[in-house]
Amino acid sequence: MCRGGALLHPGHSDAVPLQPTMKFFVKVPATSANLGPGFDALGLALDLWNETKFTPADKFSLHIEGEGANRLAPNQKNLIVRSMQKVYDAAGKQMSPVCIHCINRIPLASGLGSSAAAIITGLLGANAMLDNPLSSTDILTLATEIEGHPDNVAPALMGGLVVSTMNESKVVARKIIGAQHVVPLCVTITLPDFNFPTKQARAALPKHVSMKDAVHNISRAVLVIEAFRNGDLDLLGKVMDDVLHQPYRLPLIPGAREAMDAAKKAGASAAALSGAGPSLIAFSAKQDANIGEAMKRAFESVGLSARVFELGISEEGAKIEIKE
Ligand code: HSE
Predict the structure, then answer these.
(1) What is the CATH number of domain 23-176+314-323?
(2) How would residue 22 be classed by pLDDT, with cut points 50, 70 and 90?
(3) For residues 288 and 283, what is the distance between their CA atoms, to the nearest angstrom?
């Protein structure tokens, strides 16, 4: 099965007012930005979720289990808490004490939107605690301010395939309603055990690109959207090539180029760097363990262990579940 389930959507008029004693969960999906030629513009929500429980308490506490439990700060410096503070600041209120319990499933620094998930968790959590003073648009604007770019936070909030850009310092984002409903697209993520910070990945990019390369990507990015809208994996395979970022990043991740080729040889229709990497994303009509195995072996052949995640696309974005 290549898809996820549904609940209460935050920032919508159907949001149930919270009572001060209510516990609630914020659930936020992983995201894969760029999708080959859609550099800094496209992002896709994946069916891998961080779940965070907010419980009213006498004093602040933060517990983290799962991905990053040993690395993330369990205090006010945590990105979830810093994001919550932005909502309280915007509302002109003092932050209420709360017990926050994170169950993290999105690997850190992987190209799967873990920081976007933390930001959206904090913003939605604080917004719910304040009885939703901010709209979804406000949340997206704040999230983009914190993250610096919208291509992960937008699909994390909205779900599905989202195209986003900045216009006069404001985020413009649209969810592409597509035929993922009728044609399941299955995703294989392979994450090598390799440190490749986004800062380093961005520093590797050229300051200027040629007209030919710009046209190469613009035309393909539009066709990538069309491929998703129609669940057309043949088309996706023809147009996922990129010349703006992958040629500069792939050589810096040992085994990545070979793993991308191996995914396609093993039957994937298309493959790309997920976000700035180091993980790779491959698409296929059916879930096929051979694809992940082939990518994993390519990384192992250069001495890197790798983890494989077989996922679906999530049509749903972040959501809040209330537990009384
Ligand atoms: N679009 C961004 C990049 C995603 O490729 O640098 C990283 O967060």
Answers:
(1) 3.30.230.10
(2) confident
(3) 10
